[in-house]
Amino acid sequence: MTEPGDGPLNNLREQIDALDRDFVRIVAARLALCDEVAQVKRGSATPVIQPERVRDVVTSRRQLALDAGVDPDFAEQLFRVLLAETHRIEVAGHRPDAAPDKVAAPDSIRSGLDTVATRIDHLVVAVTDLEAAVASFTGTFGFHRTALAGGDVPGVVALQAGGVTIVFVGADASPAVATYLAAHGGGVQHISVEVLNAGYARACLAHEQFFAARDATTGVQLGFISRTGHRVGVAAANVLTMFDVLSTE
Question: Taking Cα atoms as reference points, which of 129, 240, 220 lies closest to residue 175?
């Protein structure tokens, strides 16, 4: 059955498909240039990873995104993926073995969640000593504090490094957190997976408590989040809700 607006919609989709083909060609051309850079580096004993160049790319591309009216955080994610692939290609060039063949995955093997899951949005870690955990990750590993959406909450600290976000939660955050720590000890409390559409993802999974689905085999708590509207960070209230749900099970 033809729906109203199918003609204009199909036309727009065809334009998107054409742009995507151009986009893939541009990415391929960029990676080819990076491969040439890798060959020059190998001939001059230049290090594969050059932090100054990485910082320059991330910073300048954020500005390009701002100038074009594109969310700079989104643009940074794209370029970090490109930078990671560039580094992988450079390192792979040193390997004596051939790369494995890869093909497009047939739709028949994709589950419902596989269709809409995009990345790990953040990890929530329950800790018995919040100050020590924060000091270790900032001092030893180079993470930095980042603001929580909705404002700071005592006992909850969000840390970030590049595109990785970890939220530490201590016993002082809420009675439910204290109860959780007493029962389970410190460790990863839940992994939040970003999905394209939370309603569709929920329909694909047989969990009554969708946003607090606990895997009995591993003990890992899975949360699912759809980033809609304005791009904001992790909210302490949402993090603590996961602990509240567990305390009522």
Answer: 240
Q: At what angle do helices 51-68 and 72-92 cross, to 10 degrees?
A: 140
Distances (CA, A) of 118 to 39, 139, 143, 195, 223: 33, 30, 23, 6, 13
Cα torsion 31, 35, 41, 44: sign: negative
> In whole angstroms, what is the distance from residue 189 CA to residue 169 CA?
9
Is it the case that residue 217 has pLDDT exceeding 60? no
Rounded distance between C-alpha atoms, residue 72 and residue 86, angstroms = 20
- Residue by residue, DSSP assigns 147-162 as PPBT--BTTEEEEEET
For the chain, which residues make up each domain, given as ranges? Answer: 7-92, 109-247
Helix (H) or strand (E) holding 54: helix 51-68
Q: Where are the beta strands (DSSP E) in 64-171?
A: 117-126, 144-146, 156-161, 164-169
- In this structure, the strands spanning 144-146 and 164-169 are unpaired
The residue with tokens 């970890």 is 166
- Spatial CB neighbours of 220, under 8 Å, sequence gap ≥ 6: 188, 190, 191, 214
Q: What single-letter amino acid sits at 180?
A: Y
Give CA–CA dist 95/74, Å, rounded: 32
DSSP letter (8 states) at residue 218? T
Interval 58-68: pLDDT, tens: 999 999 999 99
The arrangement of secondary structure in 109-247, i.e. its CATH architecture, is Roll (3.10)
**The domain 7-92: what is its CATH number?**
1.20.59.10
Encode burial over 79-95: b for 16+ CB neighbours within 10 A, e otherwise. Answer: bbebbeebeebbeeeee
pLDDT single digits (tens) 110-149 = 777 787 788 888 999 999 999 999 999 999 999 999 999 8
